[in-house]
């Protein structure tokens, strides 16, 4: 009799433990969907950004490496080829007609051809690319410091952020409920002026001494060496100076930010 | 608050709870065929853990659990470990992967060139009822569904702040109160008696009487390493993975032999914490679950009297 009671008790205890475990897991996952919890977790990002900026300031340089450290194959991630009609025409033409527009809150909007970009003073840096997924790759990048281009365009006093618009669509076109074609969003990103004018922030057109390959963002991609990979858009077509980015895309400052990633990509 | 070390008489509530606990554990012992334990020897209650220690202990337990589970979610985004600054993708020294076709795959764990079938646990397991390619299984990650790197990062970086604040509060307390020197810093005697202590632990002989008022040598060494070596190490290797922190403190990646090495050490630290946690729980159970649990809740730890009370 006592044994049966004990056995029942054990069954009940096991059930309670299993239920508690399931509840705890479900609870945490539910919490992750609660806007209030997400709001608090998101606020912490500002704390992290302020703290990191306190230590790194405006000009602390990301570590640079020796030629011997360069990875034999630099891993390509994200879009490997935009493969749109427009892009394919540019690619077939060696990107001779590719133009980077600089506009928005600037005194002097610009249109810069690839030839003009290559004629400007350049910086070459061997740096470590850190992906948000956790891996790293070392490569040598050559490009035009973004601060030179911004100095030519002269951002107005209201400008706060630099937004980069890219040529790669993120996904396929689809049909909505009314049968209308919905175009996928194009990749975009943003940096604040402090990160945009950092000496290692360049518009890169060479990787390891060679013309930038398509899988790495030809003809030009951003390098912001104190940030994670998703903050360095490829296939850059337009650079816009803005005071806020809440009306661009879904308003979070970048394609991946719109999917829930942090805007501050320094960690 | 009474002074640490003061003997306190057992209250009625404590006695009631204890006898309830004894009846429960004796039922459990009977169920698995063990003889019931005899009546308890006379004890006195010793005020072992102060309020700051107890509060910070339980906060730390919650924080570490969230850190571990969200960390495993982050790890699932690229479940492989490397040494150096860059990733040598063809030669990770540990990786969790899936093998086979898209419709029929199973999870494997690679350690160097050594392959283990870990299907259902590591490499591939059920995600919301559907077999999926994922490093760690859903019961181990926060949030459960994978991949969800963005949310894993939000939890991890928010609780990292709590971990550091909680840790610093604890450091400040143990140094200011003298707890560090009296209870945590291993002594010369601890090292010279280590052999005997290991034997005692292996035989599950725990300190009795006045000796039970203090941590033993193995406890001091373990707590010292876990709190003052593993703790700072896991925080520093975590910071080393941040490119902005590497620009502020370039010695960080240098110190750990590169960002990928730092990531690997971070992971090893996390699993050392997990191993500590498992052993910690086992020791709590073996040396008296209720007594230990009570001492970390109310602060009171029962010590058997060496001679019958006069």
Task: Describe this structure as you would to a colleague.
The complex is a heterodimer of chains A (267) and B (310). The termini of chain A are far apart. With 267 residues, chain A is an alpha+beta fold. The mean pLDDT of chain A is 91. Chain A has a five-stranded mixed sheet with strand order 2-1-12-5-8. Chain A has a single domain (60-258), classed as Oxidoreductase, molybdopterin-binding domain (Sulfite Oxidase, Chain A, domain 2, Alpha-Beta Complex), CATH 3.90.420. In chain A, a hairpin with a 5-residue loop joins strand 3 (123-130) and strand 4 (136-145). Chain A is built from seven helices and twelve strands. Chain B is an alpha+beta fold and 310 residues long. Chain B has two domains: 7-76 and 146-304, Fumarate Reductase Cytochrome B subunit, CATH 1.20.950.20; 86-137, no CATH class. Chain B has eleven helices and nine strands. Chain B has helices spanning 12-31, 51-75, 149-177, 179-184, 188-192, 194-202, 217-240, 243-248, 251-255, 259-286, 289-297, and strands at residues 7-8, 43-47, 80-81, 94-100, 105-111, 114-117, 123-127, 130-134, 300-304. Chain B has a four-stranded antiparallel sheet. Chain B has a three-stranded antiparallel sheet with strand order 1-2-9. The radius of gyration of chain B is 23 Å and the shape is globular. Chain B starts with 6 loop residues before the first strand and ends in a 6-residue tail after the last strand. The relative contact order of chain B is 0.13. Chains A and B meet through helix 1, helix 2 and strand 4 of A and helix 1, helix 2, helix 3, helix 8 and helix 10 of B.
């Amino acid at each position: 009799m006592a044994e049966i009671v004990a056995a029942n008790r054990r069954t009940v205890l096991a059930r309670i433990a299993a239920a508690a475990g399931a509840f705890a897991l479900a609870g945490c996952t539910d919490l992750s969907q609660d806007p209030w919890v997400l709001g608090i977790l998101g606020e912490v990002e500002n704390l992290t950004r302020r703290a990191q900026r306190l230590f790194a300031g405006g000009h602390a340089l990301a570590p640079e490496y020796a030629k011997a450290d360069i990875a034999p194959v630099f891993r390509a991630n994200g879009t490997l080829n935009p493969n749109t009609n427009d892009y394919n025409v540019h690619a077939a033409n060696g990107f001779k007609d590719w133009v980077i527009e600089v506009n928005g809150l600037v005194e002097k909007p610009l249109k810069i051809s690839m030839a003009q970009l290559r004629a400007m003073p350049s910086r070459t840096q061997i740096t470590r690319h850190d992906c948000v997924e956790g891996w790293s790759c070392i490569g040598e990048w050559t490009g035009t410091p973004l601060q030179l281009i911004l100095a030519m365009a002269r951002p107005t006093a209201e400008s706060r952020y630099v937004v980069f618009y890219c040529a790669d669509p993120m996904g396929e076109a689809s049909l909505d409920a009314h049968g209308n074609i919905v175009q996928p969003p194009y990749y975009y990103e943003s940096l604040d002026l402090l990160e945009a004018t950092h000496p290692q922030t360049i518009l890169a057109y060479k990787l390891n001494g060679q013309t930038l390959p398509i899988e790495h963002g030809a003809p030009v991609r951003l390098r912001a060496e104190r940030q994670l990979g998703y903050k360095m858009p490829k296939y850059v077509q337009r650079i816009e100076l803005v005071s806020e980015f809440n009306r661009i895309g879904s308003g979070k400052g970048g394609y991946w930010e719109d999917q829930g990633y942090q805007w501050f990509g320094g960690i | 608050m009474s002074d640490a070390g003061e003997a306190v008489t057992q209250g009625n509530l404590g006695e009631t709870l204890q006898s309830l606990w004894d009846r429960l554990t004796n039922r459990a012992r009977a169920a698995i065929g063990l003889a019931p334990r005899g009546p308890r020897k006379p004890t006195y209650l010793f005020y072992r853990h102060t309020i700051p220690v107890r509060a910070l202990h339980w906060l730390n337990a919650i924080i570490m659990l969230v850190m571990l589970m969200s960390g495993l979610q982050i790890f699932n985004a690229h479940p492989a470990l490397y040494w150096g600054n860059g990733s040598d993708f063809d030669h990770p020294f540990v990786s969790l992967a899936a093998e086979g076709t898209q419709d029929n795959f199973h999870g494997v764990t690679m350690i160097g060139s050594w392959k283990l079938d870990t299907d259902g646990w590591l490499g591939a397991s059920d995600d919301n009822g559907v077999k999926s390619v994922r490093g760690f299984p859903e019961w181990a990650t926060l949030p459960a569904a994978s991949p969800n790197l963005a949310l894993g990062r939000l939890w991890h970086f928010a609780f990292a702040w709590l971990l550091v604040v909680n840790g610093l509060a604890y450091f400040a307390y143990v140094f200011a109160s003298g707890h560090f020197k009296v209870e945590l810093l291993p002594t010369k005697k601890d090292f010279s008696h280590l052999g005997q202590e290991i034997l005692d632990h292996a035989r599950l002989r725990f300190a009795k009487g006045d000796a039970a008022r203090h941590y033993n040598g193995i406890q001091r060494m373990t707590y010292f390493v876990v709190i003052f070596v593993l703790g700072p190490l896991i925080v520093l290797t975590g910071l080393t993975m941040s490119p902005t922190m590497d620009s502020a403190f370039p010695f960080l990646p240098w110190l750990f032999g590169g960002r990928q090495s730092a990531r690997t050490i971070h992971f090893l630290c996390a699993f050392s914490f997990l191993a500590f946690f498992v052993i910690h729980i086992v020791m709590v159970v073996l040396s008296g679950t209720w007594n230990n649990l009570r001492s970390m809740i109310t602060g009171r730890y029962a010590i058997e009297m060496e001679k019958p009370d006069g």
